């Protein structure tokens, strides 16, 4: 197919109409933005993704890099790796997501695949290889009906009951060192993320104020990093946690003095989330708890018990270190008590107690809502209402 880049301009030849339209769109965009022509517009997704991952690795946490690399290797490259980046359409991404959903991948896995495609194509857009990020705004890909509900239910955080939490803490005291048991208590009584609990230092403990300063976290392998929100926060600590930390600190000081060494600045030196998770699985089994409980279960239990106890959502959100209360509600609404009848009963009780104070001064105190209900059922409701009106 023959075409010209501009009226009266160069004569160009393309094999298909699609290639001609693509070239025209590229020329328009480049002309408007003054961008240089991409060095390799025929680069495949596998090649581009490899280059992109190498470029961003120094700026990302190791865990994030591993997630990207695994998603590319297992899910994206096998399907779209040989496709030219500029030829990837929204339909390609939708088909990929649909195939993975049919294969039984969970909701979180599908979300990660879509997010990985989107961030890679965003870079391709920045480099002028594509005109639009076809993975952006793609919408939610539904899983097959028979497994969607089960998968979403499995993905929701689980919480322990009060007896189960007590069994976990007792098992930690009996089977772990004082430091290990106190670490579990810190996650349970403050709702800390495992990495945040591992990252506590003695300087973060304010026994007088009853607070802990959450300023950093430890990631898998022991590397120090910022908190998830990159913000420092203070959380209220329970009295039993403060007592356990005080006893642990006294023990550490004595051991440091007798051993002729400096006391560690860390409350739980050497702890990291990956090693903690492996030990925690054995602790869960020893405590007789449901299979699948993880260190994060302590955090979920903290949130659910606070919310079910009537603690304000804003307080719980601040303690957990969420960006806003909406995040807390999104993750933990399903853990709250779904019994709602008591709310209606409580409001009704308040209104009955205040009934005589609102426009009913001339009405006998014997005329209360319960009598209105009885009158209505006996067919005399209208006469009582008329009495109320006359006495206004």
Q: Count the E strands.
A: 7
CATH architecture of the largest domain: Orthogonal Bundle
- Arithmetic mean pLDDT: 82
Strand proportion: 5-15%
Roughly how many Å is the radius of gyration?
31 Å
Helix % is: 55-70%
Shape verdict: globular
Order of helices and strands: EEHHHHHHHHHEEEEEHHHHHHHH
Which residues sit in consecutive blocks of at least 5 with pLDDT less than 50?
4-9, 145-154, 360-369
Can you walk me through this structure?
- This protein is mainly α and 392 residues long.
- The protein folds into three domains: 118 residues, Tyrosine recombinase, N-terminal domain (DNA polymerase, domain 1), CATH 1.10.150; 174 residues, Intergrase catalytic core (hpI Integrase, Chain A); 41 residues, no CATH class.
- The chain is 56% helix and 5% strand.
- The protein has 17 helices and seven strands.
- A three-stranded antiparallel β-sheet has the order 3-4-7. It has a two-stranded antiparallel ribbon with strand order 1-2.
- Strand 1 and strand 2 form a beta hairpin.
- Helix 7 packs across helix 11 and helix 8 runs antiparallel to helix 10.
- The radius of gyration is 31 Å and the shape is globular.
- About 7% of the residues have low confidence.
Layout of strands and helices, then pairs:
Elements: E1 2-4, E2 11-13, H1 17-33, H2 45-56, H3 62-80, H4 90-102, H5 107-126, H6 145-155, H7 162-175, H8 178-190, H9 194-198, E3 205-206, E4 211-214, E5 217-218, E6 224-225, E7 233-236, H10 239-258, H11 273-287, H12 295-308, H13 313-320, H14 325-332, H15 341-353, H16 369-377, H17 381-390
Antiparallel strand pairs: 1-2, 3-4, 4-7, 5-6
Helix pairs in contact: 2-3, 3-5, 4-5, 7-8, 7-11, 8-10, 8-12, 13-14, 16-17
């Amino acid at each position: 197919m023959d075409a010209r880049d501009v009226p009266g301009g160069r004569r160009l030849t393309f094999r298909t109409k699609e290639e001609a339209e693509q070239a025209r769109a590229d020329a328009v965009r480049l002309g408007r933005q003054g961008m240089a022509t991409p060095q390799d517009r025929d680069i495949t997704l596998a090649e581009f993704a490899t280059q992109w991952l190498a470029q961003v690795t120094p700026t990302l946490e190791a865990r994030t890099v591993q997630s990207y690399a695994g998603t590319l290797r297992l899910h994206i490259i096998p399907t779209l790796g040989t496709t030219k980046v500029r030829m990837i359409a929204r339909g390609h991404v939708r088909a990929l997501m649909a195939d993975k959903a049919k294969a039984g991948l969970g909701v979180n896995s599908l979300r990660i695949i879509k997010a990985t495609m989107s961030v890679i194509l965003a870079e391709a857009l920045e480099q002028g290889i594509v005109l639009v990020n076809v993975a952006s705004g793609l919408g939610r890909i539904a899983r097959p009906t028979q497994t969607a509900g089960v998968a979403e239910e499995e993905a929701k955080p689980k919480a322990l009951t009060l007896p189960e939490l007590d069994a976990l803490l007792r098992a930690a005291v009996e089977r772990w060192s004082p430091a290990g048991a106190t670490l579990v208590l810190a996650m349970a009584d403050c709702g800390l993320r495992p990495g945040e609990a591992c990252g506590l230092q003695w300087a973060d403990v304010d026994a007088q104020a009853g607070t802990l300063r959450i300023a950093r976290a430890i990631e898998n392998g022991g590397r120090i990093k910022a908190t998830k929100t990159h913000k420092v926060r203070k959380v209220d600590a329970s009295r039993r946690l403060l007592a356990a930390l005080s006893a642990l600190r006294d023990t550490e000081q004595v051991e440091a003095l007798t051993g002729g060494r400096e006391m560690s600045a860390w409350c739980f030196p050497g702890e990291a989330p990956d090693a903690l998770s492996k030990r925690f699985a054995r602790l869960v089994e020893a405590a007789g708890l449901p299979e699948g409980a993880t260190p994060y279960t302590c955090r979920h239990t903290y949130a659910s018990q606070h919310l079910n106890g009537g603690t304000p959502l804003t307080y719980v959100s601040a303690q957990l270190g969420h960006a806003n209360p909406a995040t807390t509600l999104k993750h933990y609404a399903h853990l709250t008590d779904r019994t709602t009848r008591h709310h209606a009963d409580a409001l009704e009780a308040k209104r009955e107690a205040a009934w005589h104070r609102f426009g009913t001064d001339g009405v006998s105190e014997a005329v209360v809502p319960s009598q209105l209900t009885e009158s209505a059922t006996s067919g005399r409701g209208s006469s009582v209402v008329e009495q109320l009106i006359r006495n206004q």
